[in-house]
Specification:
Length: 411
């Protein structure tokens, strides 16, 4: 036990006597481990934000759009498209919209020229729109039964276009659609799944038909399906809408884009983590080089200890222990730096930081914890220690092979 304590004391003395050199060779493990932890932590934090959005928005929204074969330049669905869809098993609710083309929208007449070059989406929407899209009103109200029945010239704005028009809650303001004044009666909150709604103007279908002669049919339907039957409903929608005919219906699940983004983040995670491992390897080479030089610089010390009766094994263990210490403390420093990076950039991007991230390589997902410690931390520390041990083997063996007389020549 005494010899072990002596060995540890000598190793610590060897490291602390040359602090600047020790800190420099620790940079390899610090950079490598921090890169691994930061890569996995940041991608999990970003993914966590996406998963939170998915949990809030749901993954059961399906979009169905009328394609070109419906027979006109601007294809539309039959008027009873919502009834056809809601008769389908697995459908919870649906809403129909029509995208109007050639409509110049402006907050006032003098701005019409500008908004001709930068058009604003205009859509007619039915009464189920907010419920199906799960959108909250920011101010004002939604279109009511009177608006639908009479074709009143009223409009509800997306949050982005309301901000662009400098619309303030409670103001009695109008916007112009092709020169016709529509009263702004409400503004709805941000829509994450279908972002073009954020800059859209929504009006009653009858008002759209009366003023712009577009008909009462819809060209896009949004469907909420049973979460367990999303794929089944998506595949069945074209048949339900065209009743087995040849008319084309394009279907998609908007949340798939968010999930694809999460998968892309996992790929990036592996790439950056691999770069961290490469940094560890480069750091290991640095440890081996610096410690080999250290053996020469400390040859007098080694010669004296050998002359006093210290065996080769004890000398080898001393240098190997120094390498392990470099890996251990460098790994701890890397963990601290990596966690700091995750917290800082998560706050910068307004993400919910994840400090116990899950590493995924290919189809294999590592357990989140190992012996109560986040697995990524264990893997990072293990990689730093293994790299340091391997890097320290050669200098340790080199030091152990030195004979007392040979150290006189070196020193």
């Amino acid at each position: 036990m005494r010899s072990v304590l002596d060995l540890i004391g000598v190793a610590i003395s060897g490291l602390t006597s040359r602090v600047s050199r020790t800190l420099l060779i620790m940079l390899g493990p610090i950079i490598g481990v921090s890169a691994i932890v930061a890569a996995v932590g940041l991608t999990e934090s970003a993914k966590g934000d996406l998963q939170a959005d998915l949990a809030e928005l749901g993954t059961n929204l399906i979009t169905a759009e009328a394609a070109g074969s419906f027979g006109t330049q601007n294809p539309v669905f039959p008027e009873d498209v919502v009834d056809r869809i809601e008769a389908l098993g697995g459908v919870q609710k649906s809403t129909a919209t029509l995208s109007l083309t050639g409509i110049i929208t402006a907050p006032y007449e003098a701005a019409a020229t500008y908004y001709t070059a930068f058009p604003t989406p205009v859509l007619s929407a039915d009464s189920n729109f907010l419920e199906v899209m799960e959108i909250e009103l920011k101010s004002g109200r939604w279109l009511n039964e009177f608006d639908y029945r009479t074709g009143a010239r009223v409009a509800v704005l997306g949050i982005d276009i309301a901000n662009e028009y400098s619309y303030l809650a409670g103001e009695n303001v109008t916007i112009q659609l092709n020169g016709l004044d529509y009263a702004v009666i409400g503004v709805y909150e941000n829509v994450k799944l279908v972002t073009n709604f954020n800059t859209a103007v929504l009006i009653p279908p009858l008002a759209a038909d009366n003023d712009f002669d577009v008909g009462l049919e819809a060209n896009t339907v949004y469907v909420r399906a049973d979460p367990a039957r999303v794929n089944e409903v998506r595949d069945a929608l074209p048949v339900a809408i065209n009743l087995g005919g040849n008319d084309e219906v394009n279907t998609s699940v908007p949340s798939d884009a968010l999930e694809a983004s999460a998968k892309a983040d996992s790929t990036l995670q592996v790439i950056v983590a691999t770069m961290g491992i490469l940094a560890l390897v480069v750091g290991g080479v640095g440890i081996a080089n610096v410690m080999s030089i250290s053996v020469i610089q400390r040859s007098a010390e080694i010669g004296i200890r050998r002359a006093l009766g210290h065996g080769r094994g004890l000398i080898a263990w001393q240098f190997l222990l120094e390498a392990v210490a470099v890996g251990f403390f460098g790994g701890l420093g890397g963990l601290a730096v990596g966690v700091g990076i995750v917290v800082y950039f998560s706050r910068l991007r307004d993400w919910t930081h994840v400090l116990d991230p899950i590493l995924v390589i290919g189809d294999y997902e590592f357990p989140s914890h190992f012996l109560g410690v986040p697995t990524i931390y264990v893997l990072g520390m293990s990689a730093a220690l293994i790299t340091s041990v391997i890097a320290g083997l050669y200098p340790s063996v080199k030091a152990a092979r030195l004979e007392p007389l040979e150290t006189l020549r070196l020193g």
